[in-house]
Design a protein that fits this description.
Helix 1 packs antiparallel against helix 2 and helix 2 packs across helix 5. The chain contains eight helices and six strands, in the order αααααββββαααββ. The longest helix has 32 residues. By secondary structure, the chain is mainly alpha-helical. It is globular.
Length: 244
């Protein structure tokens, strides 16, 4: 756990004083576990949906993983390990993960703010007292990203990042936009575990199965009705066909 993180500081304060009670500490740990499990399952599910809807991306990823497994895998190139799912060995895996986060982030909004005091007007919009304001992502804003509804992992290659330098679209490459775990001292303490878990699960599933969406009425993300929250993502039924 990062020593400067909020959770690490809370644990230390609980040890040294009564600033944080045992009940509060238990509540913090419960929230961490709850969020870690549900957001990880949601992110994994959406990665699989995008690969199922984009078979050319799935096959490209499969080819990369087969090559990486043969070169770096354990047990004579038959078992996944940390080297196989690493960014240097399997870069396309990480590009797919990044593009899935852009298209369907774990949380549907970047920030929520309640107006608990008085009715106010902002840029001609009236916000009644008691209302809630949600700040969304710019992931689908055509002013920042080309063809936002298209799943294109290549956006995040070094060349793609370089092409956005000096334009307003370079905000897409800001560390806070990179993944769902935040940055710095308040970065999710389980981010590395969660990321490796997602990469390993996606890799093994793509190596073992050809994944598709059997519903002929579902051809793109717009055809899917889903809950914007990370809990209980409503995704279409997927078909898994063994590759070997």
């Amino acid at each position: 756990m990062e020593k400067a993180s909020y959770l690490a500081g809370a644990i230390e304060r609980q040890r040294e004083s009564n600033d944080i009670t045992r009940d509060e500490m238990a509540e913090l740990c419960l929230i961490a576990l709850f969020v870690g499990v549900d957001t990880t399952s949601s992110v994994t599910a959406w990665n699989l949906v995008h690969l199922a809807l984009n078979p050319e991306c799935q096959e490209k990823l499969h080819a990369e993983l087969v090559e990486s497994l043969n070169a770096k895998g354990s047990n004579g190139g038959t078992r996944l390990n940390a080297d196989v799912i690493g960014k240097k060995v399997s870069p396309y895996l990480h590009l797919c993960f990044r593009e899935s986060h852009r298209a369907t982030p774990a949380f549907g909004a970047a920030m929520w703010k309640g107006n608990s005091h008085n009715e106010i007007e902002i840029h001609g919009e009236t916000l009644p007292q008691g209302s809630m304001v949600q700040m969304g992502h710019i992931s689908y804003d055509e002013d920042y990203i080309d063809e936002p509804k298209q799943f294109r992992p290549e956006r995040w290659t070094a060349e793609g990042v370089a092409s956005r330098k000096g334009t307003k679209s370079e905000v897409l490459d800001h560390p806070f936009m990179r993944d769902p775990f935040s940055q710095g001292a308040r970065r999710c303490p389980g981010s590395r575990v969660a990321t490796n878990e997602i990469h390993a699960m996606i890799s093994q599933l793509v190596l073992d199965w050809k994944i598709s969406v059997p519903d002929e009425n579902i051809n793109c993300l717009d055809d899917i009705t889903y809950d914007a929250g990370p809990i209980k993502p409503i995704i279409p039924e997927l078909k898994f066909e063994p590759r070997r």
